[in-house]
Amino acid sequence: MQNPEKVYIDFASKVSFLEFIQDEFKNTNIPIEELQQEISLLESRNQWNINDLSEYVKNYPRSFIIFQNIFQLLRFTNAQLIHFVFDIVKLNSLDINAIYEYMILNLKHDLEFRKIYLKTMDQKLDYSSFISHSGQYDKKYLIAIFKFAISKYIEKSFKNISILETRIQKSEFEDFSIRFSNYLLNNLKLNEVLGTINIEKYLRNKRIPLDTKSLHGNYPKIKIEKILKNNGYKNIDYLLNNAGVKILKHNLQEQLNDPALKNNKLFCTERYIDKIIKIKDNKLKKFDLIIFHNNKPKYLFEINFYSTEGTKIGINQNEYIDLNNYIKENFENFKFYWITDGNYWLTTQGKIRFLNLLKYFDKIFNINTFAEQINSF
Predict the structure, then answer these.
(1) Which pLDDT does position 196 carry in this prediction?
(2) Any idea what DSSP says for residue 209?
(3) What's the CA gap between 16 and 304, in Å, rounded?
(4) What is the pTM of this model?
(5) Cβ neighbours of residue 120 under 8 Å, at least 6 residues apart?
């Protein structure tokens, strides 16, 4: 048995740091050309007040898109949207009758909200029947449905901005534009912000950062796939996708008949293996990477990258230990390996964890040690 300290030193000497080889941002796809009039009018004034801004919002409801993209990374939060769309003070009061009247106002004048409310209450209920029989219901029940429906309405409206546009323009809901304008001017300091930017240039050049967790997770997979291809391995994901194969049987020839299978160096990604489950929930386990031997899935890998310590690594560790034991005990034709990398493993806690993991795994790879031992698969 190798000296654990030497195994760690070899692993640590080959640890990789994150390379920025992936797109870190995406474009917003803001419809600038469609918003030229709104942008021009918004830039035409040095200072806005509540009355003028609320009138502007009411007359140009698509300006909501401009404000959202100026002040938010992606969109206003649900909490913000509820505050803009509904009278929160009224909703939070203990005056049941006032909330009830406000509910009726919304049902009467907002057809989209009405649809959601009635569907929340009863799939088959129509508005006229509800109104004629509303006195038969307990008001607390109706108000509870009202609040359920508000959450659903907000979820739907942020996906479809036209719902908000319609409501903004209705005279019955002019409080929307007033609350929104007040929030823009007093909470978000709109006048000060407008004095520092060119709106059109800002919106044209705004980019949204991608999820850093996905960047970390994708990086080692990109490197591992490159190593495999450079060593003559063929990715057959496209064949499996075309055949609709998500769960691999223990012999690939039972599912595919293709000349590509004559190549003995095959791999695929993100697939389940028939009968191999996660111990925790008995559901099939999806593996990050699978390498075939004689057209049979044989080497099963999970791939992770950790720059810092977090709860995820402990969750992964426990799952993989259980998975490795389960495979050893039940499937002699499969080998499970963990490929993990990143500078977390260079910390004191990372070293302690690694040395402990050697009790449970025959080998633990990082990107470079995998490349060194590619010919062993």
Answers:
(1) 93
(2) E
(3) 12
(4) 0.68
(5) 145, 148, 149, 152
